Amino acid sequence: MIGLTSLAQAAYPEPMAGATLAHYLAVSAIMFVLGLIGFLTRRNLIIMFLCTELMFQAAGIALVAFGRYHLNFHGQTFVVFILTVAAAEAAMALALIVLLFRRKESLDARSWEDLKG
Amino acid sequence: MSGRLAFLYPEIALFVATCVVMVLGLSRTLKARKASAWVAGLGLVAAGVLAMASTPRMGQASCPISGFVYHDGLTPAMGQVVLAEMVPYVKVMIAGIGLLLLLTMAGTVDREDEARIAAGQAVFDPLRSNRAEFYAFVLFSLTGLMLTASADDLIWLFLALELTSLPTYIMVAISTARNRSREAAVKYFFLGALGAAIFLYGFALMYGGTGHTNLNAIAQHFREHGVSTLSMAGVLLAVFGLCFKIAAVPMHFYTPDVYEGAAPQVSGFLAFVPKTAGFVALLLIVGAVGWEYAGHSAGVTSLFAGDGMEPVKHAAGGRQLPELLRLTLWVIAALTMTVGNVLALLQSSVKRVLAYSSIAHSGYMLVGLIAGPVGSTFTTNGVSAILFYLAAYGVMNTGAFAVLAALERGRDAEGHVGEAESFDDLRGLCASRPMLGWVLVVCSLSLLGLPPLLGFFGKLPLFSVGIAAGEIPLVIVLGLNSAIAAYYYLRLAFTPLLDAKDEGSAAIQAAPFKGRAVAAALSAAGVLVLSLAGGWLMTKAAHAGAYYPSAPVKAESAPISDEPAPLPNDVHE
Amino acid sequence: MIESFTLASDLSGYLPISLIVLMAIAFGIGNVVISQMLGPRRAGAVKGQSYESGMNAVGTARKRFNVRFYLIAMVFLVFDIEIIFLYPWATTFPNLAPQSDESLLWLLRILFFLFTTVVAYVYGFRKGVFKFD
Question: What's this model's pTM, rounded to 2 decimal places?
Answer without folding.
Answer: 0.85
